Amino acid sequence: MIISYSPAAYSVISGKLDTVLETDQTAYYSRNRIEEQVDINWSNNENDMNAGFQFDLRHEEIEQRSQINEQTDPQVNQLFFSHKAADINYTLGRFNRADLLGFYTLDGVVVKYSHQNWGTGFHAGKPLQIENYNVIDAGKIYGLDINHHANNISKSIVQNINSYLGWQQLQEDTKQNYIRWGF
User: pLDDT (tens digit, 9 = 90+) per residue, 93-142?
Assistant: First the structure.
């Protein structure tokens, strides 16, 4: 009798490549821009892992009063790895984040723990500005969140209650602390 066991791990890789061409001509200047956008995602649902890579490469040419200025700008927007093990989910690298402080890219780590109706999360790193978004400028950011979800409350008009308590600290020359809470 021969017994064989072959575990299989199924992964999915997806992505896209976009090209943006833009030209703008006025009486005062002429501007031409080409932008390549690469977005690649990998996921392994069996092991609750995923990763992402997002990259932009811009080349811009501005002609003003017979002078031509050229500029090439490569930018890595996201490069991260995420994994969920039991009740803990963590993400490492450069990724987008949105909270009450705004929308920004974080070079850092996010760790989330959830069990039944309770959840907590921690994040730390260096916030970076995404193009044309205003964010708080800081050298470091730290934060801690606690969440509770009450569902299907018996004999009550309100069936779901979500509560939240959060703290963030921004550090540059001085420290700024933010406390948020809500129901």
Answer: 999 888 877 788 899 999 999 998 999 999 999 988 766 666 666 789 99
Backbone angles phi, psi at 31, to 5 degrees: -130, 130
Q: Are 97 and 105 in contact (CB under 8 A)?
A: yes
Residue 143 has pLDDT above 90, yes or no: yes
Q: Which 3-state string (H, E, C) describes the chain? A: CCCCCCCCCCCEEEEEEEEEEEEEECCCCEEEEEEEEEEEEEEECCCCEEEEEEEEEEEEEEEECCEEEEEEEEEEEEEEEEEEECCEEEEEEEEEEEECCEEEEEEEEEEEEEECCEEEEEEEEEEECCCCCCCCCCCEEEEEEEEEEEECCCCCCCCEEEEEEEEEEEECCCEEEEEEEEC
Rg (CA), the chain: 23
Strand partners, 36: 19, 57
Amino acid letter, 173: D
Q: What pTM was estimated for this model as a whole?
A: 0.73
Q: What is the Cα–Cα distance from 153 to 157, expressed in whole angstroms?
A: 8
What do you get for the CA distance between the two ends of the chain, in Å?
62
Contact 52, 38 (CB under 8 A): no
- CA 75 to CA 98: how far, in whole Å? 20
